[in-house]
User: Fold this.
Amino acid sequence: MAHTKAPSAFKNPLIRWVDDRLPIFTMISKEYGVFPTPRNFNYLWNFGALALVMLVIMIITGVFLAMQYTPNADLAFDSVDRITRDVNGGWLLRTLHSNGSSMFFLVVYIHIFRGMYYGSYKRPRELLWLFGAVIYLLMMATAFLGYTLPWGQMSFWGATVITNFFTALPIVGKAITTWLWGGFAVANPTLNRFFALHYLLPFVIAAVVFLHVWALHVTGSNNPLGIEPKSDKDTLPFHPYYTMKDMFGVSVFLLIYAVIVFYVPDYLGDPDNYVKANPLVTPSSIEPEWYFLPFYAILRSVPNKLLGVILMFGAVVMIFLMPWLDTSKVRSAKFRPWYQWCFWFFVFDSLLLGLVGSQHPEGIWILLGRVGTLYYFGFFLVLLPFLGWFEKTLPLPASIAESVLGGGKLAGSTVAAKPMEKA
Amino acid sequence: MVDATHQGAESTGHGDGQTRREFLYLAAGAIGAVGSAGVAWTLVDSMNPATDTLALSTIDVNLAPIVEGMGIVTMWQGKPVFVRHRTAQEITEAQSVKLSELTDPATDESRVKKSPWLVLIGICTHLGCIPLGNKPSDDRGDWGGYRCPCHGSQYDTSGRVRRGPAPLNLAVPPYNFTSDTTVRIG
Assistant:
């Protein structure tokens, strides 16, 4: 392709001048203007763009919050209170940021489930999926570190419980935990480094997002049918079709976000975090934010400490392994009658584990947690590998255009497309 | 380096030169690796406890106001320390347990320096919560010692784990009695 040597593509002389020296406008036009995108996206394909919007919102609000926040064990709690009460617009920055983490996870969970349903992790998109899983892992670390910063009771005890996971490791566990803390308990040195890392990691996430998008633009997007575009009839230029669709999705999403921020800003928070951290009193129940509850439930479903920690980390590792655990050649669950059921039951199981994680580990909840954990791992380690062999998949459509446009008056154009497909 | 070896094999007359070059490559690489590791270790080690944190502080606890059946919580090195005045019944219970019944077998005698005082680091060995049970009004669990509110581990009147996910007994800090009514922890 010659477009790197076609300066006349841009009429504006300044743009042309820059583009001849650094073809950034050519790149934008290629990747976000004419970029051929499957024509059959549904609204689930908005969630990648929504996640990017959330990352940007979190970084911007976070930078401004950091200008007011004091990462010191004696001062942190009051400095957060001051942000809410005294700093101009501080209440808004803080609620945007604290609820932003929930919105970010919500969007990313839907994005992940979409990928699971439509088989977006399969060849040739394995590396794309891996980058996504790395982003998710980094998000979990960032969210955990950030939750420590207000230095309330739940901040302190959450940090204590999570860092104690490492004591489960044989021999080196204690030394690693002391190293993480910078002392013999969660204290000022811990808060200091958690703040530094909480500021750092979002930029690492941004870098991996760049790789994620890069990989996406090499393979192209998956689509609800899970078949590759074969001709120009199957795709649309990204702009204006999907820029508009994404903007519409972002607008609806921001409305929901705004309702939470302005009307129920504390709904997702824990009241215990409005009590200053006290190393001598453990709150009556320690519960992570909702987006970690399923993993917390898995941790608690095992009566052995090391095994519980291994299973909890293993639950995240499963996501990484998905491209190699699934043996089915068919991507989209639309054409996989058995997988479809297994998938929806997996969604239900994740929600159930979330509920179990929010309850005291007593009575029926212990049993439900164990059954839920069993299905969670069974889905990845048994169903995904074996369904590929047993499942009788439905016939795939010949092309996206044929499936979307169907017969009727456009039948002629489908026929006309056939010679091009062969070409 | 692959290139260098390749050339060495082909050009017969420069065997010495090639060996010398290979040696220099390896030596430079090794020095570079050691240097990088040294710098990396400085960064990693800076996150370990600083000397002021390490400076082993000691605290004195006055035992006189602790009545029988009651326990107190005090702070040592940022960690809660439990000091409990055990009742005669609690001591008997702690001493009469068979070691085979314990998750982390230890005799009561090995965990107590001077009866009736029980001194423990009050951190659950599961995930670091602070067990309840110092106040007689607390729920002390089925073995009358301590119960962790986080994940339900229970400890007996010697601080030994009896039920739940905790793998170890509550730790015993270094301490000694400076008088009949004062204990120095640390």
